[in-house]
Design brief:
The chain is mainly alpha-helical and 483 residues long. The protein has 20 helices and eleven strands. It has helices spanning 19-34, 53-66, 89-101, 112-124, 140-148, 195-205, 221-231, 261-266, 271-280, 294-300, 315-328, 331-344, 354-364, 374-382, 390-396, 401-414, 422-434, 439-450, 458-461, 467-482, and strands at 6-9, 38-41, 105-108, 154-157, 163-168, 172-177, 184-187, 210-214, 237-241, 244-245, 311-312. The chain is elongated, with a radius of gyration of 32 Å. The structure holds one RNA strand of 75 nucleotides.
Amino acid sequence: MENDVRVRFAPSPTGYLHIGNARTALFNWLFARHNRGKFILRIEDTDRERSTRESEQIVLKSLKWLGINWDEGPGVDGDYGPYRQSERWGIYRDYAEKLLDDQLAYRCYCLPEELEETRKSCLARGKMPKYDGRCRELTRKERTRFENEGRIPTIRFEVREGRVVVNDSLRGEIVFESDTIGDFIIIRSDGTAAYNFAVVIDDFLMKISHVIRGEDHLSNTPRQILLYRAFNFALPQFLHHSLILGPDKTKLSKRHGVTSVEQFKNSGFLSDAVVNYLSFLGGALGEGGEIFSPEEIVDRFSIEQVGKSAAIFDFEKLKWMNKAHINRLELNELTGLIIPFIEKAGYHTTDKKIGWLTDVVDLTRERLRTLDQIGEEVGIFFQEESEFGPDAVEVLKNEGVLNLLELLKQEINIEQDIPEESYRNIMLRIKKKTKLKGKSLFMPVRVVLTGRTKGPEMEKIFPLMEKEAVLKRIDMGLKLLAR
RNA sequence: GGUCCCAUCGUCUAGCGGUUAGGAUAUCGGCCUCUCACGCCGAAGACACGGGUUCGAUCCCCGUUGGGACUACCA
């Protein structure tokens, strides 16, 4: 197998991990694992204003939760570090210096306000805003004058006439004319490297073989290719995948609801389901099935198969997938994951036997689409009393229910305990005495014991309930009927 | 405005010149069942439009329309 496959995910730590970025990370990771290559995590924190260590931690945590592990990066030493751009400024400086020496870049003394003004006037005249290159040919005299004014220069890359062809493994050759690009800043006035510059230096130095990223970077690529050329660096293979859109076909953002990986976790999605959905969206898993484990996905994943068009994020399908994964998961593992959600619903699990808990989870799991729905499913086991909803009251008001409940109470009192077999026996005896059967027999029992008309099989619920609770609930039902 | 990308059921997609345009999800019926959920069966639902090329276009080319991305001393 090819072993020189090296890909990277390069988030900027300016907030939580967006689900769309998570998909990019996942694509890179899957590509690396599928091809037995290396997955590198690089933190792009050159924007000192917005980058924080807190967000970096959140991003790392989200990646870990998704099961995306890195071979090199923060916390994992490699031969090409450091892996935080803020720790690499000296490297960028040196390379920028080289460009300056070769006269491929120049110092620009324009002030941000001045640039903003020309930009605005360009826009006003319906022209493309582009740096006019006015600092390209400054004389020594002009330069010292600017410096005496206290202006601190940026370094701009000089874009010359010609065309740039981006070879994208998904979209083929895309041609850009250089004159639409304009000289761009590679070193800011504060000495830090700008994105397009740092990326190129790092991708080269870190021996990145494939650059897999979102379509939003496609128009940056010609700039980067120009830099590759200036340094005589060999080009990596580029691939720009399409973006995820919200239901209104605009870029998925907060106003569409849940967008951060952290939120998906907190609202009860399984990482396996999120991974499954993100990799499935776009068609990279091929035909023949949709529900897969991470291992199966690594095996099936083929980046060349992803669609070129943007895909709308369908929460409904994700939920369906989540449900499928909930039911696939090993029971003990599921129980461990679901306990925090039971606690969150206000029920205490610490004083419960683990065997009882797993039984409860086993019984309720197949109705869950998300883990946080466990609260409403599990109330019947944790609450002392039944709460009768309108539909429940309706059932209790049926003819013969009063008699049925009294019989039920008697029968339960006769039984010493509530063992496995009890329920069957009790119901059998009541059936004989009341001549009731089917729905008219079982539904009132369900309703009085759980307060609901829906739920798991009564035969399985019954052994998990305390005898006192059962009696108390029957009394509540009787009381309701007495009124 | 400019540059670039994209276009099959509501949604995700299969299709790679000749198909009753297939599947999944969601929706609606039915079966199963004490109920819900699962499962099974069924229904409805798409090639954006207009030109070419061709014996023949969902498929290839061009245009129109629509959507998206970028257009920063953000990444």
